[in-house]
Amino acid sequence: MFRSNNIAARVFERQIVTPAPGTNIHRVRRFYENLVPSCTIYDVECPDHSFRKFTDDGQYLITFSRNHQDLIVYRPTWLSFSCKEEDCDTHDLPFKAKRFESFFTQLYCVQLASGSEFIYKDFFLYIESNHFGLFATSTTQIHDAPAAGGAIQGVPYIEKITFHLVRLEDGVILDERVFRNDYVNLAHGMGVFLYDDLLAIVSLRYQTIHILQIRDSGNLVDVRAIGEYCREDDELFLNSNYQVPANHVVNGLQHNHPISDSSFLSGIKQRLLSFIFRSIWSEETDETLRIQDLKKKFYFHFQDYVDLIIWKVQFLDRHHLLIKFGSVDGGMARNADHHPALFAVYNMETTDIIAFYQLRCNRNKATSFSQFVKKMLVSLPLSCQSQSPSPYFDQYLFRFDEKLISATDRPRQSTDHPIKFIARRPPYSVKFKIKAGPEAGSTDSRTKKICSFLFHPILPLALSVQHTSFLQPSVVNIHFRR
What we know:
Layout: H1 7-16, H2 24-29, E1 39-41, E2 49-54, E3 61-65, E4 70-76, E5 104-111, E6 118-119, E7 125-127, E8 132-138, E9 141-142, E10 157-167, E11 172-182, E12 192-195, E13 198-203, E14 208-214, E15 220-226, H3 234-240, E16 249-250, E17 253-254, H4 267-283, H5 287-299, H6 302-306, E18 309-315, E19 320-326, H7 328-332, E20 341-347, E21 352-357, H8 368-379, E22 398-399, E23 412-413, E24 419-423, E25 430-434, E26 449-455, E27 461-468, E28 475-480
Antiparallel strand pairs: 1-28, 2-3, 3-4, 4-5, 6-8, 7-8, 8-10, 9-10, 10-11, 12-13, 13-14, 14-15, 16-17, 18-19, 19-20, 20-21, 22-24, 23-26, 24-25, 26-27, 27-28
Helix pairs in contact: 4-5
């Protein structure tokens, strides 16, 4: 651990001291205790865009046009200007240095949506190895849709959802994948998960997990679909072994029809029920107690298990998925805190459920631990790329009010007071402050204000964007180290 807060002393100590194994990254991040944003340019003149986020390697700033049909990508640069005076730190910045273009260079603008389609502003995934970006466009959501063709009752549908794979270096659209009359939860990427070059897209309406591979060539290739069927030849096998009843005769001829949609439970549901049954069966060796347990734990809740739907998924590795099950109401609710959820671990290669968890919190004892467990269960499975990698959100380095700002990629309620980042080490001083609104504060305190923060993952650079409920331009501030 560094013994000095002086950055020059830290650099010298880094040259002569070998860090303990596994602590190198943490020691590097400690330098950010000295490298903090120290200057703010309030209410910057900038394009009227919807600012999304920095990519995790810091090379691109992703924004969308205000009509949510164009993608505009910027390259972050660093402010540079000359000063002829002896003490430049006491002078104000030149007027040109206070412009948005002094910090960001536009690379291109490309149209992703047209007509009735719009870019889903809360969705963006970055494939860092190839510098690809995955974006989504969709038409408006239609409620009260009839559950036809195997669709789940109570789930709305979107006429067209398109995923666009874009090369961020030049804005070339490499491939697209379209889902029609389907529903994928795109809010903050909850229905999509990325792991290396594998992509999982959850169709809530048809209860199918689509696994795709992102090739280096920029192609989206289908790997498998998990839901009604789990193996590639399940449908062929079932249809080839389906026996039509002998009295099923139409116009004097016997017809071989494919299996109807309601003949069986889906493949993934069959495997879930089978795993639960076998787990209860193996708990007892006594035949009488085994039957009693099955009646109480399995058959009594059988319909509840049948009614479960897939909410979210997360890759645990290239072969295993963490799947969250719950009710239809919970899957469509904005806040699923009060809806019970079940978790299963699924092996994609063997098509087996290998673990199942019915986590319950004790309602009678509202302890801090039970509240912590409840909070963690709501967040599982984790949304992909939902946390900012900025070192200023490192809880080992800085302390801040998580009700006002956090590493989670979500807008927060704005405050007219600056947010303080306080050092975790003595003397526990305030290292820097972030204020989202105008420098003089808002003139109308009754207006509800929402703010979002975009921290660069490497540089001491951040954007704070304050929005109001009315159709007024956003207030954009740039926080940087001068």
